[in-house]
C-alpha cells in the first residue's frame, strides 16, 4: 500500500472513531455557520462574486505599480504576485467542521492532521478559475497558510504534501511547486501565525498586486488586527481598509477566525454583547 493510502486510512479511522454525544452549547453555536457554508446559495454567490470581481480587477493591477500589501519594495522589474490564504479561501474545510459539530469536538492538531491527510477538501466557488486566470496573465500565485509543518520520519512537512496533493486534484496552478507554498513553521522565521514575514519574503522577489483571504490576518499583521478590533486602528491599517474590493478581497467565513478571539469562549456569554436598539426596550405594542 502506498504511503498516501496508508495516511488516508489512518485519517479515516481517527475521524470515524470519535463517539457522538448530546450536542453541547458550543456545537449548537457552530451549526448555522457550517450549514450556511455547505448548503446556502448565498455562500456560493458571495464567494463567486468576490472571485469574479478579483478576476476583473487583476489585469489593471498587474499593469500598475500599486502594492496590495503593507510589505513592499520596488515594484518595477518584479514579477506580479497574487497571494492567497488556503483554508476557507481556496479550500473548503466545512466537512471537517461538520464532523466536529456532529461529534462535539473542537479543533485539535491530531484530528486536523487526519483531515488534511484525506486530501478531500473541496474548492471554494470561483477559486480555481480565478487562480488559473491569474497564472495565464503572468502572475505567480502564492499560497500563504497557517497549516503547520510538523515533521514525520518519512516527510519533513506532511501538511505541505497533503495541501499540494489536494490543490493538484482540483486544478489549482503551481500546486506542483513547493516554492508557491508558505506554511507556518516551514522555516524558523515563520513560527508565528502572523503572516507578515512570509509576505515580506514574497515582496523581496515579487510585486504583490492582490491579497485574497477570509480573515483580517491575511491582510494585516496580527498586532494591527488586534488594535483594529479594539477600534484603535493604526494609520497603515486604516489606509489598507479602503482597498477592499480593489486589490484586497475577502471570502466570507462564518465558522471560525481571529474574530473569535475578541469574544467570550462560552457562546452564551456572547449574547449580552449583541447591540440592539438603544431606544427600544422590546415592547410589541404600538
UniProtKB/TrEMBL annotation:
The keyword Signal applies. This is HAD family acid phosphatase. It comes from Uliginosibacterium paludis. Pfam families: Acid_phosphat_B. InterPro entries: Acid_phosphat_B-like, HAD-like_sf, HAD_sf, Lipo_e_P4. The keyword Signal applies. The lineage of its organism: Bacteria, Pseudomonadati, Pseudomonadota, Betaproteobacteria, Rhodocyclales. Keywords: Signal. PANTHER family: ACID PHOSPHATASE-LIKE PROTEIN.
